[in-house]
């Protein structure tokens, strides 16, 4: 067996051992939660529990959150009122992405996690900012992980540091001309360069259009074709999407929501090299599966909108290029070094 495979196998065995140890160590905690579920008519056993290094002890069962508390139900967009969650439970600044509910913790939807994978940590820093975003005069909504809750109620969190290049946007949205923008990494870069420097982002599509005294903003973030997720045995290409409405009269955003668009392989390759007007220009329409992830209704300042949008498209230098007019200096320097080494 090659040395690389030996190392991987050893690491895999250690993860299995760690999981068994943590579940055994928390037997009483698990039994207590099973008792809580029995009081609510739910019959869980040891097979419904798992240890995930980035999260902790997790209980899983279809629609578990609503069964534990019938007041917590998705609306027609699959969202929960964050204002309600804050008023009824506890949201701690030290635990973004989690909501304390007595003997368990609710969690933000897995699509907020790195790679949209349910065992990954939350992508810095959008969830952090949303958890701390002031609720006064705003109706906020969030997508939750409805099938899983965290059982260990403590402040232990998997900490992950990230770098973000602050995006500045000085122009007034009211003055932006209607139209489409498509941003791509430099076309002379290799796939490995795109992965390291641009977070596997293939393009960032942006569209502004006017509707009476409202400027509407849309953005879709396309990853490279190697980024896929599997849902019910089908592979999809996840594309983050933002929709916002800017009120020209009062100079602030009145609505802001984000979603994940799930493209099939054919839809992905049809759409990614086109733009937001694809359906207007083609008889074969692309209509993807969409999963709403958050929503804010009310006054959102331009600066707050920029920060939240930047962090939702986490680790994507193309967002900075749009807001600042150029790529981050660090990326420009690294790209130039690559070009010099290949010259």
Describe the structure.
The protein is globular and about 60 Å long. It has helices at 3-25, 27-39, 64-68, 82-88, 126-132, 191-198, 265-271, 278-281, 302-312, 317-324, 329-342, and strands spanning 49-52, 56-60, 80-81, 98-100, 105-107, 138-142, 148-150, 179-183, 201-211, 214-223, 229-231, 234-247, 252-263, 289-300. The mean pLDDT is 89. Strands 3, 6, 8, 9, 10, 11, 12, 13 and 14 form a nine-stranded antiparallel beta sheet that branches. A three-stranded antiparallel beta sheet has the order 1-2-7. The chain has eleven helices and 14 strands. The chain starts with a helix and ends with a helix. The protein is 31% helix and 27% strand. With 343 residues, it is of the alpha+beta class.
Key terms:
343 residues; alpha+beta; nine-stranded antiparallel sheet; 11 helices; globular
């Amino acid at each position: 067996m090659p040395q690389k495979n030996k190392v991987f196998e050893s690491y895999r065995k250690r993860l299995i051992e760690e999981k068994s140890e943590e579940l055994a160590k928390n037997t009483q905690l698990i039994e207590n939660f099973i008792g809580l579920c029995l009081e609510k008519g739910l019959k869980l056993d040891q097979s419904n529990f798992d240890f995930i290094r980035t999260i902790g002890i997790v209980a899983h069962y279809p629609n578990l959150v609503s069964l534990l508390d019938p007041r917590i139900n998705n609306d027609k967009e699959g969202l929960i009122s964050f204002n309600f969650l804050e008023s009824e439970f506890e949201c701690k600044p030290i635990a973004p992405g989690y909501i304390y509910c007595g003997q368990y913790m609710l969690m933000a939807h897995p699509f907020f996690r790195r790679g949209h994978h349910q065992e990954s940590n939350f992508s810095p820093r959008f969830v952090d900012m949303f958890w701390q975003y002031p609720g006064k005069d705003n109706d906020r909504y969030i997508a939750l992980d409805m099938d899983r809750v965290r059982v260990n109620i403590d402040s232990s969190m998997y900490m992950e540091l990230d770098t973000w290049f602050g995006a500045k946007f000085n122009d007034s949205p009211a003055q932006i001309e209607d139209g489409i923008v498509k941003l791509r990494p430099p076309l002379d870069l290799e796939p490995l360069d795109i992965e390291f420097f641009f977070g596997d982002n293939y393009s960032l599509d942006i569209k502004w259009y006017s509707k009476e005294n409202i400027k509407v903003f849309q953005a879709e973030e396309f990853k490279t074709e190697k980024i896929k997720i599997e849902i019910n045995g089908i592979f999809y290409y996840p594309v983050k999407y933002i929709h916002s409405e800017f009120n020209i009269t009062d100079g602030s955003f009145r609505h802001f929501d984000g979603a994940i668009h799930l493209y099939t392989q054919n839809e992905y390759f049809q759409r990614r090299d086109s733009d937001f007007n694809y359906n207007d220009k083609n008889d074969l329409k692309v209509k993807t599966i969409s999963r709403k992830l958050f929503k804010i209704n009310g006054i959102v300042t331009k600066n707050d909108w920029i920060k939240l949008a930047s962090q939702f498209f986490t680790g994507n230098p193309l967002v900075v290029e749009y807001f600042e007019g150029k790529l981050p200096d660090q990326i420009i320097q690294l790209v130039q070094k690559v070009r010099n080494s290949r010259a």
